[in-house]
Write a structure and sequence with these properties.
single chain; 7 helices; binds biotin; 5-stranded antiparallel sheet; 12 strands
Length: 245
């Protein structure tokens, strides 16, 4: 993997990126990005770290990645979309990760809402956090697996393991942004139609942990706002999905 640094990031990233902050170590790039947004960070500002001491995951979980093992990035967006459609931005990030990995010859898929899987194991997770007028898209991609913590090793995979060789984090980040930019600035229906193509949850029986309880049913669609639609008519806006068969 190439060393991450401010200059290498500036050199590698597409012009859509309006600013970059790099931290060898920070608590959470999402927290940093939200703070920067309150100070006026523009649409397309990126916070990248080599290591997080308090990486945040969905549903109140942690995101753990040893130094140098992954891509940890948060992107400040100032969306023109109605707040009701903001969940589409998280889905767009999942699509962008899939399209980037597919471009490397891999076969990714999405578990609703936006866990990216390779060979049934998680390679990337996305945490979208919102404040008035701002959405921060936090994306973690496992790159090197040799140093994966034992507690997640059986359910996680790194891009290098799947690719069978060394992978440049900067190239992955540049590819990811290249796919993401037109999606977040384009029409929302395009996000959903591309999302459905990558989503491996559809057509599967699922158990969804809603926080307040569990629901089990067949997943049949993702609606125009990004919610998961179950055969019995339930429309799920947020939850943790287990794909059953
Ligand atoms: C998930 O639970 O799957 C979402 C994980 C999101 C992790 C990324 S790493 C970069 C960004 N900063 C954070 O604190 N979290 C996100």
């Amino acid at each position: 993997m190439n060393d991450l640094g401010l200059q290498s990031l500036i050199d590698a990233l597409p012009a859509w990126v309006s600013g970059v902050r790099f931290f060898p170590e920070t608590d959470s790039t999402n927290r940093r990005a939200m703070l920067w947004a309150t100070e006026g960070a523009a649409h397309g500002s990126l916070v990248v770290a080599d290591f997080q001491t308090a990486g945040r995951g969905r549903m109140g979980r942690d995101w753990v990645a040893p130094p140098g093992s992954g891509l940890l990035v948060s992107i400040v967006l100032r969306p023109r979309l109605e707040p009701d459609l903001h969940p589409l931005l998280g889905l767009a990030a999942g699509v962008a990760v899939c399209e980037c990995l597919a471009g490397m010859g891999l076969e990714p898929g999405l578990k609703w809402p936006n866990d990216v899987l390779l060979a049934g194991r998680k390679v990337s997770g996305i945490l979208a956090e919102a404040a008035p007028g701002v959405v921060v898209l936090g994306i973690g991609v496992n790159i090197g697996l040799a140093v994966m913590p034992a507690e997640i090793a059986s359910t996680s995979i790194g891009v290098e393991e799947a690719a069978g060789g060394q992978v440049d984090r900067l190239e992955v980040l540049a590819g990811l942004i290249g796919h993401l930019a037109p999606l977040v600035d384009g029409p929302p229906d395009q996000v959903i139609s591309r999302y459905r193509d990558w989503c491996r949850t559809l057509g599967r029986r699922v158990r969804v942990d809603l926080g307040s309880g569990l629901v089990e049913d067949l997943a049949v669609d993702v609606d125009a706002g990004g919610s998961l639609v179950l055969a019995g008519g339930a429309v799920i806006r947020a939850g943790d999905v287990t794909q059953l068969r």
